[in-house]
Amino acid sequence: MSSAIGDKDLLRQCIKGNQQAQFELYGRYATAMYHVAYRIVAHREGAEDVLQDSFLKVFHQLHTLRNEITLSAWIKRIVVTTALNYLRSQKKMQFVDFQPTDDHLEMPDEEQETPWDARSLHNAIQMLPDGCRVVFSLYAVEETPHKDIAQMLGITESTSKTQYMRAKKLLRKHLQAMNINDSSAFNN
Hints:
8 helices, single chain, 69% helix, mainly alpha
């Protein structure tokens, strides 16, 4: 099957049960959706499980896709929901409600920020507590509004916002610690 085939034609072939079309659909979206799952569950095996479960759902539910949403957005929604359910089944997601005025949540001046490389940022995100990491990933990376995050996670919008603020604070702390550890390695 040619990779030049459009999503609509590919979708029709997948609904008919064409395994080659299903393989091509998987190939088009698997890498991006793995990264979505990984940002939420924070470990390779879990992300692989989520990806596999998500695509099983995709192939069983393709006939329900409506024209109002793109195929990639629809698949991403399934992956996010599956990843969140995975975390719930692992009893790993906890949310602590913080007050936005707490001292430990105050943000430093933006001008004082240091640029970080992508690898350091990725590692720091993986160090966040599950609740912070999930909210941060959904809001900052997937661009999901706090209102939708709150609904998906069964939390208040305020809790989503404070988890995001806490995540940013913790990320700065982790990144600064990494920078100190990295720079001290060069001084030895």
